Model the fold of this input.
Amino acid sequence: MELARLIEHTLLKPDADSLQIKQLCEEAILYNFIGVCIPPYFVPDARLYLEGSNVKVVTVVGFPMGYTSISSKVEEVKRAIDEGADEIDMVINLCAVKDAKWAHVRNDIDSVTRATHLKGKIMKVILETGLLKEQEIRRLCEICMEIGVNYVKTSTGVNAPGANVEAVALMKECIADSSVLIKASGGIKTKEFAEQLVNAGANRLGTSSSLVLIGK
Done:
């Protein structure tokens, strides 16, 4: 299985620096990864480092907790895109999910998706499946399909156990017959596990172990 073009080479550590981001981008170009996933602060740098390549600049919004205000998330999106982001990974408001405030959850996802799509960019919604019940995952996938997001994503890799085959398979079942895709992320450290996630339905892999996955 050719994994490189499924991988978003990821560095979201709070103590990341510009030299590490530069190296990340250089590796992404060298090994033909689909994108780099980086903190919003480094989007302008990554855009410069990746100039002339096909590697996508991916950044995060509402990361990692997801409970910032809707208006704050929308502003984060606008700035990230203005500074060069191609794709947005937004964390849902888990507090609203657990409080069963589904109107708020929908408004949150819809507002950020509209802001992203108005700029012609790709929108991914991070569900944080390790903190969710099956019915919550099903409801969120249903909302994401109705709104028309591009991807549903398993995890931040920060707040709970990361991706697992069962969660990806459930998400695949939920989004069947729709155009929504799946990004698995969090704890993907071996090629074997990566392939299991892809076989279960993942279309993208977010990982900081990218070089291990491709045998480098």
Q: What stands out?
A: The longest strand covers residues 56-61.
